[in-house]
Design brief:
Protein name: MOSC domain-containing protein
Strand order of the largest sheet: 1-14-10-11-12-8-9-2-5
GO molecular function, one term: pyridoxal phosphate binding
Largest sheet: 9 strands, mixed
CATH superfamily: PK beta-barrel domain-like
Strand content: 15-25%
Helix content: 10-25%
Number of strands: 14
Distance between the termini: 45 Å
Number of domains: 1
Number of helices: 7
Order of helices and strands: EEEEEEEEHEEEHHEEEHHHH
InterPro entries: Benzoxazolinone_Detox_Enz (IPR052353), MoCF_Sase_C (IPR005302), Pyrv_Knase-like_insert_dom_sf (IPR011037), Tri_helical_YiiM-like (IPR005163)
Shape: globular
Radius of gyration: 17 Å
CATH topology: M1 Pyruvate Kinase, Domain 3
Pfam families: MOSC, YiiM_3-alpha
Structural class: alpha+beta
CATH class: Mainly Beta
Length: 234
């Protein structure tokens, strides 16, 4: 049985600044906040996103990344100063105790006076490649399933580092974030599994992706997201 409570060990925010490629911005470099933070439907008031077309918004208001993954990344990549403390992956929440295998799509979580709902796993993008100076870092994150997940905000309020995250409702116990993400990231089209997935409370972008995949009977080109290459016309 997964733990129903974990402690918000580190709360992180960041400001959007020019990033690695011309004309790009990112707030992936987040730092710990020791102050109580106000949360609205768009997330932490003191937090920003560099490209609102693909980051942030109500379906990706807060990003949670398991601290236990850091040891696996050190083992895989070697020592890296960014992996010495939370924030390497642009996360807002860092905890020990919950992973993609133990949380589920639609889980409702109380933290401080804020009510959150797990909306989707992360779809890693090329900015991780540039941040880590590892050309296939985004692909590694996708293939390992060490993506973290996003919350939508059901009830605004305040929260702070040290607060408890308490699981209060689990409507989809058979659909861990790891399982849902494995469907999205599969290069094999299992029509029945996709149809089952489409009955879940998916974020609109995931629903469009899987619906299009089912309709066209082909997996979309991931290279624009993973590598930052221009998207090919349909």
């Amino acid at each position: 049985m997964p733990e129903h409570c974990v402690i918000l060990d580190t709360l992180l925010t960041g400001k959007a600044v020019p990033f690695s490629r011309p004309g790009t911005f990112s707030a992936i470099a987040k730092t710990p906040s020791r102050e109580s933070q106000r949360v609205t439907e768009l997330g932490l008031v003191d937090d920003e996103q560099g490209d609102l077309r693909i980051h942030g918004g109500v379906e990706k208001a807060i990003h949670h990344y398991p601290r236990e993954h850091y040891a696996a990344w050190v083992a895989e990549l070697g020592e890296n100063p960014m992996l010495e403390a939370p924030g390497a992956f642009g996360e807002n929440f860092s905890t020990l105790g919950w992973t993609e295998e133990t949380v589920c799509l639609g889980d409702r979580v109380q933290v401080g006076s804020v009510l959150l709902e797990i909306s989707q796993g992360r779809m890693p993008c090329w900015k991780l490649n540039d941040r880590f100076a590892v050309k296939d870092m985004s692909l590694r994150v996708q293939q390992t399933g060490r993506t973290g997940w996003y919350y939508r905000v059901i009830q605004a309020g305040r929260l702070a580092a040290g607060d408890r995250l308490e699981l209060i409702e689990r409507p989809c116990p058979q659909w861990s974030i790891a399982r849902v993400s494995s469907v999205l990231f599969s290069s094999v089209i299992d029509a029945d599994l996709i149809r089952e997935c489409l009955t879940l409370p998916l974020a609109a972008s995931w629903r469009r992706t899987l619906g299009r995949r089912l309709e066209k009977a082909q997996v979309e080109d991931w290279s624009p997201r993973l590598e930052g290459t221009p998207r090919k016309p349909d």
